Amino acid sequence: MVEKFVTKIKLKPDFEEGKEIERIYANYFEVTHSRYDFTFVFCDSDLSPLSRPEIIEELQKEPKEFGIPIVAKLVLATNLIPEIIKALEINYKKYSQKLKNGEFEK
Q1: Where are the alpha helices (DSSP H) in the chain?
Q2: 70-95: per-residue pLDDT in tens?
Q3: Could you tell me the residue ranges of all domains in the chain?
Q4: How far does Cα 15 stand from its chain's mean position?
């Protein structure tokens, strides 16, 4: 008879002390998926040059598409997506509460 062995493992990021992890800023993203994974493409859409009055006037006459720089592309296994959604919901709720309570006003 074979005994079943069950163990629980909790994984967590191992941030090495003193090792700087690069943060990448993005203010635009797109998500696509395949059968096996989800792909997140993050961009930095600095549109400040487009705010000049002469450009706004031209864009009102004829809308145009502009390419924006991709700063990161992240491919995630599909089994991570429900946990990501759950984590985002929890953290966004905490963020909203702090914002409502003025905790970011400093």
Answers
A1: 53-61, 81-100
A2: 999 999 999 999 999 999 999 999 99
A3: 28-99
A4: 20
